[in-house]
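Need residues for this backbone.
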C-alpha cells in the first residue's frame, strides 16, 4: 500500500482541493534563493504547480521509484540513506513521506545531516484525526494485502523537531477549501479535527559551546580589616 493511499486520496474531490492548497502553500513557502540548493524527498508528479524548475535549477527530487516532475533534477535513492553531502542543502521538503516510511527515524536523522545550519525544513502530513481520512484509511486497509502507514499527530512531530534543536516557525492547517497558518508554537484547537492535512515549517539551529577559561589561585595579597592585616588570595585567569 504505502504511498498509494496518498495518490488515491488526491483523486477524491477533497483530495483535489488539498492538492491545490498544498501547491499554493509550497509556492509561498519556498523563499530560498534560486542559487541555493533545495531537496524534495518523495516525488509527487505535480511539482510544476509550486516550483519553476527552469528558475530553480538546483531543485532536486529524490524518490525511491524515480517519481517527480520531468523538468526537475531527479535521483533514485532511499530516504533513510541519502547520497548527499552533509550540510549541503538550504531547504528540505518532505511531502507526505513520513506517514509511509518504516525507517522514518533514520530518515529524519539523514535530513538533519544534509540540511545546513540555518536551513529550513517543511513537512506535509495527513491529519490522522480527520473523519474522512480515517474512513478512507479503513477502506483502503481492508482492500490492501499489507498496510504500512504510520500517521503522526502534529504535536508529536513538533516534539521530535524540538528535540533535534529545530525552531518551529509555523504550522498550517488545510481545511475544507482554505488553509490557515499559525506562527510560532502549535496550539491544539477544535479546527484541528476538521483539517484534512497539516504542514510544519521549522528552522535548523546549531548551538556552539563556549569554553570557560580555568581559574586558579596564584598570588596572595594583604588587606587591612579592623586594624589588622589579613592575607587574601588573588585569583588570576590562566589563558592558553
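Answer:
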Amino acid at each position: 500500500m504505502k504511498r498509494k493511499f496518498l495518490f488515491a486520496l488526491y483523486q477524491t474531490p477533497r483530495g483535489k482541493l488539498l492538492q491545490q492548497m498544498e501547491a499554493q502553500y509550497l509556492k509561498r513557502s519556498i523563499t530560498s534563493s534560486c542559487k541555493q540548493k533545495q531537496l524534495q524527498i518523495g516525488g509527487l508528479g505535480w511539482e510544476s504547480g509550486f516550483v519553476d524548475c527552469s528558475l530553480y535549477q538546483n531543485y532536486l527530487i529524490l524518490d525511491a521509484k524515480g517519481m517527480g516532475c520531468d523538468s526537475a533534477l531527479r535521483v533514485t535513492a532511499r530516504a533513510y540513506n541519502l547520497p548527499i553531502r552533509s550540510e549541503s542543502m538550504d531547504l528540505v521538503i518532505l511531502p507526505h513521506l513520513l506517514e509511509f516510511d518504516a525507517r522514518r527515524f533514520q530518515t529524519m536523522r539523514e535530513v538533519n545531516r544534509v540540511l545546513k545550519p540555518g536551513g529550513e525544513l517543511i513537512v506535509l502530513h495527513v491529519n490522522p484525526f480527520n473523519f474522512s481520512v480515517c474512513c478512507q484509511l479503513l477502506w483502503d486497509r481492508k482492500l490492501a494485502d499489507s498496510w504500512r502507514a504510520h500517521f503522526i499527530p502534529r504535536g508529536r512531530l513538533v516534539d521530535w523537531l524540538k528535540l533535534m534543536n529545530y525552531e518551529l516557525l509555523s504550522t498550517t492547517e488545510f481545511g475544507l477549501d482554505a488553509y490557515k497558518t499559525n506562527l510560532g508554537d502549535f496550539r491544539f484547537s477544535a479546527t484541528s479535527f476538521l483539517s484534512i492535512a497539516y504542514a510544519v515549517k521549522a528552522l535548523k539551529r546549531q548551538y556552539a559551546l563556549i569554553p570557560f577559561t580555568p581559574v586558579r589561585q596564584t598570588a596572595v595579597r594583604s588587606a587591612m580589616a579592623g586594624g589588622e592585616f589579613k592575607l587574601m588570595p588573588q585569583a588570576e585567569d590562566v589563558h592558553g
